[in-house]
Write a structure and sequence with these properties.
Elements: E1 4-9, E2 14-18, E3 21-26, E4 28-29, E5 41-45, H1 48-62, H2 70-73, E6 80-84, E7 87-93, E8 99-105, E9 110-113, E10 118-122, H3 126-133, E11 141-145, E12 162-167, H4 168-174, H5 177-183, E13 185-191, H6 192-200, E14 211-216, E15 219-223, E16 231-233, E17 251-256, E18 262-269, E19 272-279, H7 302-311, H8 320-327, H9 331-343, E20 347-350, E21 355-358, H10 365-369, H11 373-383, E22 387-392, E23 396-402, E24 407-413, E25 416-419, H12 422-427, H13 435-449
Parallel strand pairs: 3-11
Antiparallel strand pairs: 1-12, 2-3, 4-10, 5-9, 5-11, 6-7, 6-10, 7-8, 8-19, 13-17, 14-15, 14-16, 17-18, 18-19, 20-21, 22-23, 23-24, 24-25
Helix pairs in contact: 8-9, 11-13
Length: 450
């Protein structure tokens, strides 16, 4: 399978200036929506200067790569937008999928309407980004996500089609990053002065060793020396992507994964939030962590997805109780469904609300499920009869799984799984379970269901 999904926009996004102010038109694309999908949002922005700076910062993230070649670095990617429930969210990844950024425009950030709700890709071309850079304080601006009734053209009536390569790493990252976000906890709250002081302590260049966020004399700093309760940050140079926004921020909240597998840095600018999550190391993308694999072991029935569409809408806080009551499902069953749907990217995570929100990715679900080679390899091991169950009780499962010229032993006991393969020996479960453990878990689930 190709590492890129190529799609196209029939018209480019643009920032058009007029006597009454500027209008930002964001062209959309989706695999799962019809070509004539309506406009998702249309209205005035209350803080166009702040939003323009945040969108420029988001574009810097999606044009970045911290572990790939210069050729890959030069490729342009576009973010996705979820509009609905009085929220507009822009999301994107670095090309290497190790940095995830999101711009949340809250209700006080606009005055407009949502003719439709949903999630779509939007065109972030270089002329539009350059125009956003020119927006000044005091300027007025309207925003349109998707097509409005009147078409927007540049250069007369010419229709411009721009083909865009979207890395499949993005799609996999979107199905994994919220698993990390749901486990993170807030560790620090800093005001603007403290934030500026903290970022002044970021070392130059691209340090290969870990750095730690710690407090010394009531002053936050990054240090190469680990100390008690310090927050570990690998690839600290990636945080420099936030520097253009720091003078505009009222506060910074720092969130950390309990096992230091990621950190999230959330800036607050009036009605706009800019958050950036970085993976454990610069060379590790969220797309390869495997955090969502176990949640995909069971098939997701179409009726469950239909129920999500029926009782949820874009950016709505996910309400499992409502689905359980209306669909007459056990609440534990709904929790299991929610885990699998979030693993497919249908749920994002809001750290301030401490809750999932609904989004339907603009990609076919079959594409998402096909992008997990470990899961496909696990299914192949079962289909080819390479798994032999040695013993199974309520407390312990032991199985043998055939490998290349060797047989691996998998033991699952007390909620912990271990395997004798090289992958597990190297990562110890930090990057998701290996294909052999996945195969045993899927196989034993099938037996239990039978």
């Amino acid at each position: 399978m190709s590492d890129l999904l190529t799609y196209s926009y029939s018209q480019p996004s643009s920032l058009v200036s007029g006597a009454s102010g500027s209008s930002l038109f964001l062209a959309q694309y989706s695999e799962i929506q019809k070509d004539n999908a309506p406009c998702f949002f249309w209205g005035k922005l209350t803080e166009p200067y702040l939003l323009s700076r945040c969108l420029v910062a988001l574009s810097s993230v999606v044009k970045s790569s911290f572990s790939l070649s210069a050729a890959d670095f030069a490729k342009m990617k576009d973010p996705i937008v979820t509009a609905g429930n009085d929220r507009i969210r822009f999301e994107g990844f670095s090309f290497c999928a190790g940095v995830y950024a999101r711009v949340d425009v809250l209700p006080d950030g606009f005055d407009g309407e949502f003719p439709a709700q949903g999630t779509t890709n939007v065109d972030f071309n270089q002329p539009m980004i350059s125009a956003l850079n020119s927006v000044q304080r005091g300027n007025s601006m309207s925003l349109s996500v998707g097509k409005k009734e009147v078409s927007v053209t540049t250069g007369g009536n010419k229709i411009v089609e721009r083909k865009v390569p979207l890395p499949t790493k993005w799609i996999k990252g979107l199905t994994s990053v919220q698993v990390f976000l749901a486990d993170t906890e807030i560790t620090h709250r800093f005001n603007r002065i403290q934030t500026l002081q903290l970022f002044q302590s970021i070392p130059g260049g691209k340090p290969k060793n870990d750095y730690y966020l710690t407090i010394r004399g009531n002053k936050p700093i990054f240090s190469a020396v680990k100390s008690t309760n310090a927050i570990c940050v690998g690839g600290i140079h990636r945080l420099k992507l936030l520097e253009p926004l720091l003078p505009l921020a009222d506060a910074l909240h720092v969130f950390a994964h309990p096992h230091m597998q990621s950190t999230t840095w959330q800036l607050y600018m009036g009605p706009i939030r800019f958050s950036m999550s970085v993976s454990r190391d610069a060379w590790r993308g969220f797309s390869g962590e495997g955090a969502a694999l176990e949640a995909m072991l069971d098939n997701v029935e179409d009726s469950w997805i239909d129920a999500m569409d029926k009782y949820s809408y874009a950016n709505q806080t996910f309400n499992p109780t409502m689905i359980a009551v209306n669909e007459q499902l056990d609440i534990q069953q709904v929790d299991s469904i929610a885990a699998r749907l979030s693993a497919m990217g249908l749920l994002g995570y809001d750290l301030d609300d401490n809750a999932f929100f609904y989004r339907r990715l603009p990609f076919k679900l079959g594409r998402i499920l096909s992008l997990n080679p470990r899961l496909k390899e696990a299914e192949a091991l079962i289909a080819e009869g390479k798994l032999r169950l040695i013993s199974q009780t309520n407390e312990r499962i032991e199985a043998a799984v055939a490998g290349t010229e060797v047989e691996h032993t998998v033991v699952i006991a007390n909620g912990q799984a271990r395997c004798t393969c090289t992958w597990f020996g190297k990562h110890q479960g930090e990057r998701g379970v290996c294909k052999h453990i996945l195969a045993v878990k899927k196989f034993t689930k099938t037996i239990d269901h039978d």
